[in-house]
Design goal:
The complex is a heterodimer of chains A (about 325) and B (about 270).
Chain A lengths: L4 H16 L1 H8 L1 H28 L2 E2 L7 E2 L3 H8 L1 H33 L5 H13 L2 H12 L5 H8 L11 H29 L3 H9 L4 H12 L1 H15 L4 H7 L12 H11 L3 H40 L1
Antiparallel strand pairs in A: 1-2
Chain B lengths: L1 H31 L3 H5 L11 H11 L2 H32 L5 H10 L5 H15 L6 H4 L6 H14 L2 H9 L4 H12 L1 H17 L2 H7 L7 H11 L4 H21 L1 H14 L1
Helix pairs in contact in B: 1-14, 3-14, 4-8, 4-11, 13-14
Classes of the chains: A mainly alpha (about 325), B mainly alpha (about 270).
Amino acid sequence: MTAILPAETAGARRAPVRHTADGRRKRWRYLPQYLAVAPFFVLFAIFGVYPVLYSLYLALQRWDGVGPMKFVGLENFAFLLSDTTFWDSIGNTLIIWVMSTVPMTALALLIAVGLNSSVRYKGVLRVAYFLPNVTSIVAMSLVFGSIFSDEFGILNWFLGLFGIGNVDWLSDPWAIRGAISVMIIWRWTGYNAIIFLAGLQALPPDVFEAARIDGAGPVQTFFRITLPLLRPVLLFSVVMSAINGLQIFTESQVLLGNRGGPGGAGMTMVLYFYNTAFADNDFGYGAAIAWGIFVVVVLFSILNWRLVMRPERGQVQTKGAGR
Amino acid sequence: MTTRRARVLTLVALIVGALITLFPYYWLAVMASNTTADIYATPPRLTFGGHLFANIGEVFAKIDFFGSLLNTLIVAVVTTLLVLFFDSLAAFTFAKYDFPGSSVLFGILLATFVVPTQLSAIPQFTLMANFGWVGDLKALIIPAAANAFGIFWMRQYARGAIPDELLEAARMDGAGFFRTYLSVGLPVLRPALAFLGIFTFVNAWNDYLWPLVVLIDSNHVTLQVALSQLQGVYVKDYSVVMAGTLVAIVPLIIVFLFGARHFIRNIAAGALKG
């Protein structure tokens, strides 16, 4: 910048000031930037870091939230390991996750492929499929509650038209899990279809052109080309559905109440946490359950991560071998 | 030809799928506009009735539904405005300024994604009790006033969208940091603000677990909590519950339809990049 005279003179004029107060100027120079990012970090320290540390402390206490705390050491965690309700809630959560994720992914793929073909009304259809994702779970749990209602539900009436007898949607254990799964499928299929559609549109068209020239039919093209190329997007969707699936709470709570319905078939991990901490006011044990959920989530994430990473490593290897 | 037939079949299948998806909304409107006896009849009444306003009137008369509607609106609007301001300011800074520790701070921000909400729920509740915020809308708004997702997402956008030359020009004109954010950053970020705004509004409107925990025994419940209570008040009067449910989701659907195309495109783009 020596070529620009005005800047040089300006620098020369400012030089004495900079000389005397150099350190102070530097320290304050970035103050606006620190202030700009501060709100998030301050809020996170108060409502994120502190609570997480405190919940570790709470997990070592027995406390009803009002009276004095009593230190019990690792007793809560020891009880957690032998607590069948907790293990059942993990089981229920995983069962519901599988029961919902498999059909949801298949349906979303079908819809995405359909939307990707040259049909009309794409914009309207996309909005229609996406709408459930933004609609309140509480509101729609109430609507589904009446649809699934054992005696007067429209679903049982509809099934009756085909000679299928009443299904006890909200009292039979497997029907309960099925009903919750249906609500999750309804909520997330459109979301995933939109994600898959974006993935499809990002695929290079010449690959499909080549497949057509080689005489591949639509089914063959789908399984041999579309699916493998869509793999990263599919993995994203499975990881997302795992994160969301482990947090299922509202559907169960609104549909079946704090105990997860008859036999506790709809008792998910988060519902058990809510029930223990905020319905039974057992804050110490509730904190221990929260840590239990955290461990399950971490284990599940590691599993997911390995599933995501391993095939990619394989791909790199085949690429190398091909060369 | 066969391709044309395939196209028509695909369209028909997609429309049938969409109708099934939309059926719960239709059924909600049918239930809300009939009497409970009509819904419970065999066969049930499958078309709209004339009792919608009577049912809504009953909801408003029996519980303070209008109050909870107002509470929800306050929470959603204020949270959205705060998030838009704090997130865009932080995102603009992280995207365009290098300052000592900026990459470490951004790394910490990303790490906060993995902290699960249940872990902090009980201590947050006791914290709110200490602040005297239990039953107060502040308990919903303040902790949600800035969030990592919004900052991360908007930073990705800001990095590509704000040209360095523009910042340089603003500096030459003597604009300070905050002035540059207002006159250069914000206008360029407008499309991203629209998406983050709808996203935040929808989530704030629909939030349930935390409002249920901190507001349950107060006069300041939000719509979602009021809905779950309404179910308890009208155990067998489905029509009234459904009228309330309808009132609770219609404003949100309007907000969503307002920016649906834009919103859906950004959701998909975020998934592909992430």
